[in-house]
Amino acid sequence: MLNHVVSYSLAMAVLLVAVAGCVAAPSRLPTDQEPESTDTPQSEVDVPAPSVDADIPAPSVGVGATCGRRRWPVKTLTDRDAARVNFAPIPASVEQLRALPVPRTLPQNSRNSPVELTTYSLDARILAFKLEDDRDIHVKISALEDTSLTMIVEFPDAKCSGAIASARAADIRSARAALVGRFGEPSAQRFRDLSGVGTFTGVGFFDELHGQNGVAPNGIEIHPVLAFSAN
Predict the structure, then answer these.
(1) What is the mean pLDDT of residues 122-149?
(2) d(CA 224, CA 167)
(3) Distance between CA 110 and CA 108 in Å, rounded?
(4) For the segment 107-129, what is each residue's pLDDT rounded down to a tens digit?
(5) What CA–CA distance (Å, rounded) separates 150 from 216?
(6) d(Cα 218, Cα 207) in Å, to the nearest integer?
(7) Which of 167, 149, 150 shows the shortest CA–CA distance to 158?
(8) Do residues 111 and 83 touch, judged by C-beta distance below 8 A?
């Protein structure tokens, strides 16, 4: 009888140990399973393309650089007739200059008398300006009482070839400086509208018609401008 009791007690002890081992052993996660990332995806940011500044001034030209071609000696007062120009200005108006007859020829290195040998001074409305490819500042002006009656006046760059050698280089330089001092540097990409009245003094010049902004019907210009003041 005692043997049966001992055997039963040993069997129960073994069973309890086995059950306890099963309960205490923790379950294991698979070792090849990566933990889920807690990082949130970075949102895409639209970065606008840099804007192009159309009004960036053109780079300065080197001293003596070739800037223009068409009638360039006449435009810069370095043509063979430059010594014959009368620099005592006579008063004129936009209307009067637009009414002048068109010359039959436009020589590259000489002048049409009497207009291109005359210095004019005129008051006009200032409408717009732009820096041209030949470094001239092209200014569109009009009659005081009628802005549809337009013509062009031009301010060469005194550092360009021709202008730098002109007997009137100092006047060309100071007139341009006065214009820029009043209105700032012009854009090389587009015309900028201006307003006001100015007095322009310079030599008469006939240009070829090639679709210029503000050109007079006869192509008359003041070119170069030798003095400028804004009223």
Answers:
(1) 98
(2) 12
(3) 6
(4) 999 999 999 999 999 999 999 99
(5) 6
(6) 8
(7) 167
(8) no
- State the Cα–Cα distance between residues 229 and 182, nearest whole angstrom: 9
Cβ neighbours for 129, distance < 8 A, ≥ 6 positions apart? 137, 138, 139, 140, 179, 183, 186, 191, 192, 194
**What is the H or E stretch that residue 98 is in?**
helix 94-98
pLDDT tens by residue, 60-74: 555 667 798 899 999
Q: Is residue 151 within 8 Å of 200, Cβ to Cβ? A: no
How are beta strands 137-142 and 220-230 bridged, if at all? Answer: unpaired
**Verdict on whether the full-model pTM lies above 0.90:** no
Question: In sequence order, which residues have a C-beta less than 8 Å from that of residue 85 and are 6 or more positions away?
Answer: 77, 111, 116, 117, 118, 119, 203
Residue 121 has which token pair? Answer: 């001074």
CA-closest candidate to residue 130, choices 107, 147, 155, 149 = 155
CA atoms within 13 A on the CB side of 64: 0
Integer Cα distance of 214 and 1 in angstroms = 134
Sheet strands (E) in the chain: 86-92, 118-131, 137-142, 150-155, 192-193, 197-206, 220-230
For residues 30-56, average pLDDT: 46
Q: Which residue has the higher pLDDT, 90 or 39?
A: 90
The CA radius of gyration of the chain, in Å to the nearest whole number, is: 43
CATH number for the domain formed by residue range(s) 77-103+111-230: 2.40.50.140
Each domain of the chain, given as residue ranges in start order, spans 77-103+111-230
